[in-house]
């Protein structure tokens, strides 16, 4: 397993946002995490990526216990994420946003930035080249010098993905990347997620809409009310009466 989630719980005061969540993600998978509003999907990402400490349970990533470690340490370990509400440096250019993501991977950071020594200049060039390559990969080569805030919404989502990839993750966690996209943009995004997997990056994809994940995921876990309803191949999950019930009780999502 690349990531093993064991008996994770998270309480906010009296609210059990997550209870006893266990499943594993194999390397090379596109793994879908679905469930209605308030199911606990984002909370699970937040516990995994160091935003919150889980109340109980354990995350094992590449055979190391990473439970409760800080956000930068999670990134250094090789887990990157995007956010449900886009978080970009809006006053920086598109290229700079990706370069910032890349910095967590390079050695001579603070001291190098002060002295501007040769090693730093070489690294800077390498970071710039790599950032441009990632922008080409997410098909954002044109607006490299535009401010991030001026990009259309769907492009901002792709920029977030490029920035996350700049940390060279082995696991990329995407929190509703298709939210706010039209069907054509969402289709293009799904194709891009496949290409990311083909680069050797395992993908954990939160999606509210069941139909979107069914086409591209190798496995799917379903949360409802902070509990794991089921996890398995998409065809098994789709026909599971417990899953249908979880969705029927809520606003339509399919
Ligand atoms: N920081 C917090 N403090 C208190 N309650 C929280 C906090 N974060 C999340 N919750 C609660 O935990 C539950 C799960 O929320 P979460 O955001 O994880 O759901 P979600 O599955 O991502 O939903 P959505 O599809 O709407 O994004 C909700 O009841 C939410 O109100
Ligand atoms: Mg959420």
Explain how this protein is built.
The chain is an alpha/beta fold. The chain folds into 2 domains: 1-78 and 170-199 and 217-254, 3-Layer(aba) Sandwich (Rossmann fold); 87-169, Rossmann fold (3-Layer(aba) Sandwich). The chain is built from 10 helices and 10 strands. It has helices at 41-48, 71-77, 94-103, 110-115, 118-137, 153-165, 183-198, 210-214, 234-238, 241-248, and strands at residues 3-12, 15-25, 30-34, 56-61, 64-65, 79-81, 171-175, 202-207, 219-224, 227-232. The strands form 2 sheets. Strands 6-7-8-3-9-10 form a 6-stranded mixed beta sheet, with helices on both faces. Strand 1 (3-12) and strand 2 form a beta hairpin. Helix 3 (94-103) packs parallel to helix 6 (153-165). The longest helix is centred in the middle third of the chain and has 20 residues, at 118-137. The radius of gyration is 19 Å and the shape is globular. The mean pLDDT is 90. It binds adenosine-5'-triphosphate and magnesium ion. Residues 12, 15, 17, 35, 37-43, 84, 208 line the site of adenosine-5'-triphosphate. The site of adenosine-5'-triphosphate has 13 residues, from strand 2 and helix 1.
């Amino acid at each position: 397993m690349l990531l093993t989630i064991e008996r994770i719980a998270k309480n906010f005061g009296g609210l059990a946002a997550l209870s006893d969540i266990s499943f594993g993600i194999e390397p090379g998978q596109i793994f879908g995490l679905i469930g209605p509003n308030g199911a606990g999907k984002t909370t699970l990402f937040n516990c995994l990526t160091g935003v919150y400490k889980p109340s109980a349970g354990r995350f094992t990533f590449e055979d190391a216990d990473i439970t409760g470690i800080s956000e930068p340490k999670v990134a250094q370990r090789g887990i990157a994420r995007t956010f449900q509400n886009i978080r970009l440096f809006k006053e920086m250019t598109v290229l700079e946003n990706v370069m910032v993501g890349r910095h967590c991977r390079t050695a001579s950071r603070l001291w190098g930035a002060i002295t501007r020594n040769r090693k730093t200049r070489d690294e800077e060039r390498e970071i710039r080249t790599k950032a441009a390559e990632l922008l080409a990969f997410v098909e954002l080569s044109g607006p490299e010098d535009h401010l991030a805030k001026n990009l259309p919404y769907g492009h901002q989502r792709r920029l977030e993905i490029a920035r996350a990839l700049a940390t060279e993750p082995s696991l990329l966690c995407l929190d509703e990347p298709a939210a706010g996209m039209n069907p054509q943009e969402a289709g293009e995004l799904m194709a891009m997620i496949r290409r990311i997997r083909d680069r050797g990056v395992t993908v954990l994809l939160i999606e509210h809409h069941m139909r979107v994940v069914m086409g591209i995921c190798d496995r799917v876990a379903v949360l409802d009310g902070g509990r794991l309803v089921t996890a398995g191949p998409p065809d098994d999950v789709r026909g599971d009466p417990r899953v249908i019930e979880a969705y029927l009780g809520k606003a339509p999502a399919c």
